[in-house]
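Appendix B, Record 12. Input sequence as logged:
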Amino acid sequence: MTPESATYSDASPAVQAHLSILQSVIQRMASNSTSCKAWCIGLVSAVLVVVADKGRPNYVWLAAIPTALFFVLDAYYLGLERGFRRSYNTFIDQLHHGQLRAADLYAVQPAGGIGLVGALFSFSVWPVYVTLLGMIFLAQRFLL
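Logged structural output:
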């Protein structure tokens, strides 16, 4: 039996290994997204403290730079996570319909591209960064 003519079941070690790889990639993308939010909040807070300490309220908008960068990076990781989830679901569909081929195994790439634009408007991304921008504005207006 050649690998191309082999049939795979959900108990196959190759299928289990492939699913495990996809799950770990999805988990890593979600963890990266969480890290983006944590790093952004820390950096914005540090910039605001330094600006307050130096008495330069006009420099408060420097905190908007890491906010914008982490916003895009967070959306990038969310887009990748969604692509890998589509890849995972497609693999499961092929497995359940008996259409799984050897070439489908260990092909780890996001299905349908990254989808960055859609991720930018996701509710799990933009409220954090819009809130940070609002806090930067409020800090400049009322605290500094």
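The chain has four helices and no strands.
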